[in-house]
Amino acid sequence: MNFSSKLIEEAVSEFSALPGVGRKTALRFVLHLLKKDKHEVEAFGMAFIKLRNELKFCAHCHNVSDTEVCEICANPNRDHSTLCVVEDIRDVMAIESTGQFRGVYHVLGGIISPMDGIGPTDLQIESLVHKTKEGAVKEVIMALSTTMEGDTTNFYIYKRLKDQVLRISTIARGIAIGDELEYADEVTLGRSIINRTPYENSLSVK
């Protein structure tokens, strides 16, 4: 793809670096922005600069937040004794959209994946263990993707928590093996949370 402008070429390269965006789509984005008013484009750019510079991570659950403590953790009407362990913000959004969960979350920031060089120490697992030892948490729901990496992470967390006096459960297998939570429809995901089962049951199935 030949460009008559180095500036356009650089802009296309930046857009095409995004997941799922090819150079033709990136070029359409750039040409669309060129048709916009200068102030609109500046506002578009500033939104991402502010996002990168001002976004925080909740001090309690590690979810993204505009404040030190996210709205979910700060809500006194949520059940703070029920903790749902998820991979990242996409899973929080997916579960919240079901309207079936009234507890709080713990965002790991990823899952164990040796192939990608991600181990337990790279995730928010120690803070999860510390949180459960404080005594307020009565149930930990493992809601990670039903992939090999997700199952590995579930098992590692289970081993770290199993000696504590709390219920450890996992979402029901209404979600197909290998699926990620963000792609599950709301009804299926909602039912899988409501029909969650003790994690020990999933071990006996394997």
Give your account of this protein's structure:
With 206 residues, the protein is of the alpha/beta class. It has 2 domains: 49 residues, RecR Domain 1 (Helicase, Ruva Protein, domain 3, Orthogonal Bundle), CATH 1.10.8.420; 130 residues, Dna Topoisomerase Vi A Subunit, Chain: A, domain 2. Helices cover 44% and strands 13% of the residues. The protein is built from 9 helices and 7 strands. A 5-stranded mixed beta sheet has the order 4-3-5-6-7. A two-stranded antiparallel ribbon has the order 1-2. The radius of gyration is 21 Å and the shape is elongated. The protein starts with 5 loop residues before the first helix and ends with a helix. The mean pLDDT is 89.
CATH fold annotation of the largest domain: Dna Topoisomerase Vi A Subunit, Chain: A, domain 2
**Domain unit count:** 2
Please tell me what the overall shape is: elongated
Quantity of strands, as a count: 7
Number of helices: 9
Question: Structural class of the secondary elements?
Answer: alpha/beta
Named CATH architecture of the largest domain: 3-Layer(aba) Sandwich
Helix content: 40-55%
Strand content: 5-15%
Blueprint of the fold:
Layout: H1 6-16, H2 23-35, H3 38-54, E1 56-57, E2 64-65, H4 71-74, E3 79-86, H5 89-96, E4 103-107, H6 126-133, E5 139-142, H7 148-161, E6 167-170, H8 186-194, E7 197-198, H9 199-205
Outline:
The radius of gyration is 21 Å and the shape is elongated. It has nine helices and seven strands.
